[in-house]
Amino acid sequence: MELNDIIRWFHLLGATVWIGGMITIAAVVPALRSSGVNRDQLRAMARRYGVVSWVAMVISIVTGIAQIFRLDIELTGALAAKLSLVAIAVSLAFVHRELARVAGPGLRGAMEGALLVVSLGILAAAVAV
After folding, report:
1. DSSP states of 13-32 as a string?
2. Long-range contacts at 25-29 (CB < 8 A, ≥ 24 apart)
3. How far apart are CA 110 and CA 7, in angstroms?
4. What are the pLDDT digits (tens) for 86-100?
5. Buried b (16+ CB within 10 A) or exposed e, 96-119
6. What is the C-alpha to C-alpha distance for residues 129 and 127, in angstroms, rounded to an integer?
7. What whole-number distance in Å separates Cα of residue 44 and Cα of residue 66?
8. pTM for this structure?
């Protein structure tokens, strides 16, 4: 296996953990709320996923940058869109993390939904690259 293949593998692993985790959380949290799981348990789950997602996001970004330079990838419209969406997703994730302690469930849910939509946009752009 070549270095470029290893970099690509870690890039895909990071993206899968990051976006797959968001999809899973989006499906699981409403079910947990409906079943009566208390807020402290949801917070513990969110904190754990937060650590995992930030690590996955950093891995994806670092390996994405490495691929651009190692493979001399040309900046196309699809790649520019993907990079822009990644910047938006990182910004949303940061704001969400900072506001999660004080925001109500409606605002947190709206931010999580926006982050999920942007992340799915990243996947769509990645397919086009």
Report:
1. HHHHHHHHHHHHHHHHHHHH
2. 25/49, 25/112, 26/112, 26/113, 26/116
3. 33
4. 999 999 988 988 888
5. beeebeeeeeeebeebbeebbebb
6. 6
7. 33
8. 0.83
DSSP string across 40-60: HHHHHHHHHHHHHHHHHHHHH
Q: Name the residue ranges covered by the structural domains of the chain.
A: 3-128
**Closest C-alpha among 84, 91, 68, 75 to residue 121:** 84
Using CA atoms, how far residue 22 sits from 29, 68, 75, 83, 103, in Å, is: 10, 25, 28, 19, 19
Whether 102 shows a pLDDT value over 80: the answer reads yes
Residues 6 or more apart from 104 whose CB is under 8 A from it? none
Q: Identify whether the C-beta of residue 18 lies closer than 8 Å to the C-beta of residue 62.
A: no
pLDDT value of position 43 = 84
**Residue pair 57/33 in contact by the 8 Å Cβ criterion:** no
